[in-house]
Amino acid sequence: MKNKLVSAAFKSATAYLLLMTAVVILADLYPPVKSFLANLTGHHWTAKGVLGASLFVALIFIFKAFGKDEELSRNISITIASAIIGSLALLIFYLAHYFA
Q1: Do 33 and 27 meet the contact criterion of CB atoms below 8 Å apart?
Q2: What single string gives the DSSP state of each residue in the chain?
Q3: Hey, how many other C-beta atoms are within 10 angstroms of the C-beta on 77?
Q4: pLDDT above 70 as % of the chain
Q5: To 10 degrees, the CA torsion angle through 39, 40, 45, 51?
Q6: What is the per-residue pLDDT for 1?
Q7: Cα dist. 32→37, 40, 53 in Å?
Q8: Domain ranges of the chain
Q9: Above 60 in pLDDT, residue 37?
Q10: Is residue 63 a contact partner of residue 8, using CB atoms and an 8 Å limit?
């Protein structure tokens, strides 16, 4: 029970990392998405930050309410792997975009 909040935070961070990676790539591929985000807060990066932070906090509460007390080291490993995968995806996307 004591690791439930921490596990929820790591699960939420994993979802945040994967979703934000997808949103960044999608916004650069499709200008209407970038325009939509910019119209929300005045700049597309600000909108990504606000949406990401809101998602992170909301998912913590959802995962804490409906999740179970899992092994913490597993959740940490999954979050680290998600950060690496997201970073590599963005690196590959921007390198391909730059050299195209």
Answers
A1: yes
A2: -TTHHHHHHHHHHHHHHHHHHHHHHHHHH-HHHHHHHHHHHSSHHHHHHHHHHHHHHHHHHHHHHH-----HHHHHHHHHHHHHHHHHHHHHHHHHHHH-
A3: 12
A4: 97
A5: -160
A6: 56
A7: 9, 12, 22
A8: 4-99
A9: yes
A10: yes
pLDDT 10s digits, 42-86: 998 899 999 999 999 999 999 888 877 678 888 999 999 999 999
Token pair for 83: 């950060």
* Full-model pTM: 0.87
Tokens of 98: 């730059």
Q: Given its phi and psi angles, is residue 93 left (phi above 0), alpha (psi -120 to 50 degrees) or beta?
A: alpha
What is the residue-averaged pLDDT of the chain?
A: 91
Is the C-alpha dihedral spanning 73, 78, 81, 83 positive or negative?
negative
CA atoms lying within 13 Å on the CB side of residue 3: 12
Lookup: tokens for 64: 């804490």
From the CB of residue 72, how many other CB atoms can be counted at a distance below 10 Å? 13
